[in-house]
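Sequence only, no structure available. Ideas?
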Amino acid sequence: MTSTAKTATALTGATRRQILQTSVAGAALGMLGAPALVRAQAATKVRLGYWPIAAGLPFYAAVELGYFKEAGLDVEPQKFSSAQQVMEAVLSGRSDGTANGTGSANVAIGELAQPGTFKIFCANPSNVKNVLDEVIVPVASPAKVMADLKGKRVGSGPGIQNVTLAKTILERGGATGATVVELPIGQHVAALAAGQIDGAYTLEPTGTIGRLNGTSRVLEAGVISRYVLGDNMAPWFGGSASLSSDFIKKNPDAAKKFIAAYAKGVAYVRSKPVEARKYLTGYTPIEGPLASEVPLAAYTMYNEFTSADIGHFQKFFDLFSEKGIFSSRLMVDTMIYKG
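Reply:
I predicted one. Tokens follow.
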């Protein structure tokens, strides 16, 4: 064999060895990268709609603390300007569920429109102790009880749930002849200060904002528990977190993981309410001194509901049936997630 041939043979051998070594190294790198790739491919997407209010805190905390990522889920928070829009997004397939704070009556209306769509896995009850709902008046108002708002203009948040409840509490509280005026909740304090309305059925943090800036005061808190449920300590399940039945059916394991991670968010808010408040920032307009003052909601997971809770929840839904807002009576128990 000539020297040229030997050289060619040597080069060919070297090239083969390099190719082989490169292939082995590539395979090894591929194996090292595979688990991450598999995890990325396995991460189920969950789109959750939320209304930017304090009641959604367990969801905000769970996102920021990485509870959903730890569960192998890719959660996309979707912000909407009203609870009705959150519900409509689920009906149209643009969202997979609702965060706490989404009006339970809004969810119910969606359920009546498309039976079997919503499964509630967590609700946020309020009452005179865990304040969410209240009637506020200007700080200098002579009103002392609800009946003092007879014939007055009373603001209410927009949407069928807010308006129906405002009319009901005024009627049952003796404020006959009052006119309900729909206004975005964020405008209630300013409208009171400007004299455009004489009072407002509103939701926190409105009452806290008015108190802090000296504009308004609370006339009565926990009004739904008192005037709708008949007991100011009864839980009013005004907001609900839910997943669509379609998502649960297509992704049963992911649904269980999502609800378990959400439950960790609830546990965190319950055990560390002061620390949890920082997660209101970015998801809601609540920040600064207001974030440390606003009342936090209570929470009831699907496996914590008692028969009495279901009874109070049903009484709330029945009001909307009686008022003709619901096309038919809707049984709450059929909507609770069963695990």
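Residues 143 and 149 are 7 Å apart (CA to CA).
Hope that gets you unstuck.
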